[in-house]
Automatic annotation (TrEMBL):
Keyword Transmembrane helix: no
Domain Lipoyl-binding, chain residue ranges per copy: 571-651
NCBIfam families membership: PRK08591.1
Annotated Biotin carboxylation domain residues: 3-448
Name of the featured protein: Acetyl-CoA carboxylase biotin carboxylase subunit
InterPro entries: ATP-grasp, BC-like_N, Biotin_carboxylase_complex, Biotin_carboxylation_dom, Biotin_COase_C, Biotin_lipoyl, CPAse_ATP-bd, PreATP-grasp_dom_sf
Xref: SMART domains: Biotin_carb_C (SM00878)
Amino acid sequence: MSSFDTILVANRGEIALRVMRTARAMGLACVAVYTDADAASPHAAFADASIRIGEGPVADSYLSIDKIIAAAREAGAEAVHPGYGFLSENAEFARACAAAGLVFIGPSAEAIALMGNKAAAKRKMNAAGVPCIPGYESADQAADVLAAEADRIGFPVMIKAAAGGGGKGMRLVQRPADFSAALQLARSEALAAFGSDEVILEKALTRPRHVEVQVFGDADGTVIHLGERDCSIQRRHQKVVEEAPSPAVDAALRARMGAAAVKAAQAIGYQGAGTVEFLLDQDGAFYFLEMNTRLQVEHPVTEMVTGLDLVEMQIRVARGEPLGLAQDDVRLEGHAIEVRLYAEDAEQGFLPQAGRIAEWQPPSGDGIRVDGGIAAGQEVSAFYDPLLAKLIAHGRTREEARQRLVAALQDCVLFGLACNRDFLLEVLLHPEFAAADAATDFIARHFPNGLEAPLTSREMAVAAALIHRAEQQRCAAAAGGVAPELLGWSGQGILRSFLRLECNGETCSLQVCEEPGQLRVTCGKRQHSVTEEGGGLRVDGVRADLKSWRLEGDTLQVAVAARIFTLTRQRASAGAAPAGQVGQVVAPMHGVLKEVCVAEGDRVAAGSRLAVVEAMKMQHEVRAGAAGIVASVAVRPGVQVQAGQLLLEVSPQETDGA
């Protein structure tokens, strides 16, 4: 048995808070680590002690084994919980903890090393009789060998980083002609994320479901499973929506998948929490995908349907205690669905966002749980994963859980930077998801360009009324002793004002007329009547369901039930040059410029790769909008760039002719 009273959580954000809340409830002291970028974060404030481990970049902070071990020693911690991501599946970290006399709250270093390498894991699972997808996982990593193996397997194929997961270092390749470029990107991303550019190849299945099984093992050799989760709603192989149990799994299939997952864990003598991931084909066949040797982001849905605290179970197993739970003791009650709130702009191709959170209003209600790690005033850094919070709903049925989660998202407000809240609503409300028919291609088929939802004239009317109200309040404050009935008085009858509002590059002109008891807002050919009632707004007699709004300078942010949108007021005196001038190629987001693919004087075709920007652990290609000649390169690889910063200039392609 291992005894400890103080736990250092080697992570940040919502998972650090999640772990510490359970640890504190168990009577344990909690130590947080933080960087300069996270100095004001809730997880650092919640802990009993907080240790600074660096400035911001993960390589010198959350991924530094030496700094984490030193922080644990400084704080007098006896155990380390790795959370997920970062060092959670790093066998060297587990070994370093043991060497320092620290209890690592997770599986053995040997299990992490074996299952952390996808190639070795597939070989082990094949030997154990666990069904696996056809592919290539050998040591020869020559590009021509990999290309030949891809041809043998047959396109489409999946390239995957052998040393990690989470969608990083992963590329789907549809045609042989695209293989070389995809391999280069996958290797570069894998090396940056996991320190290894080794990859494996797998046959890409058509419209499978991603179903994973939660397993738990103890020191006595007992291994059980806690049911499955369906994680089919993914974008770029990163999960967006998860649920338990899977709507595609019946009791018989659950028993078979559960038995296969337990067999996989037993084959490596697994202890602690782990997840065996499968692809479920349309014919009911399932194939081993990988094993995550840690707590999963989506573990709350399992907790909601089993009533178990997985972090508490992790801690007890790490102490050497038996599970105290047999397979027949596991009962699944109701249904749970989780969505991940990301700092990304779904209306701009899911570009990662960084900046200050101006307002954060998490939802509440029956069956609602929020696992968050953010607060108003906090800076969201480009150094880390874009996950802000997780919203989870539980209900007696899947439909009740879905409806509760829809209502929770409609009550959720985040201002200051773009998030994917509206996109998540669209997913949950989509008929295919509601019918439980969605597979892993759901987002690619239905939202190939992200969220395409231009503002309605009703929403523009709400914005115009809010700006008009703010102007009235400003004038009243500046007017001193002027009687309210004289403010805004006009000798020409109805007083009209004009607004020009810009949203996502589109400008709209509105006219606002003050009439008795209402505002008459004209937007193009549409007119709307806006009235106030009980502090809220009604548009044409229908409640606007306004959740919150915020006006800072000329920028207005509005949250209604259906969406959160940002508008910028365009004033006549504004003389800024238009964005995206011809020939200028700018950074699409905050991040690190990983690669410049061209040099001055190079000729480029439309769609050519010009540069690669890494933001929030993912690499994003910057491509030429038209053919031309590279006139200048303004930045060098390795530097931090800001959204909108000039990267290079491309002169228009010269044409022949008299």
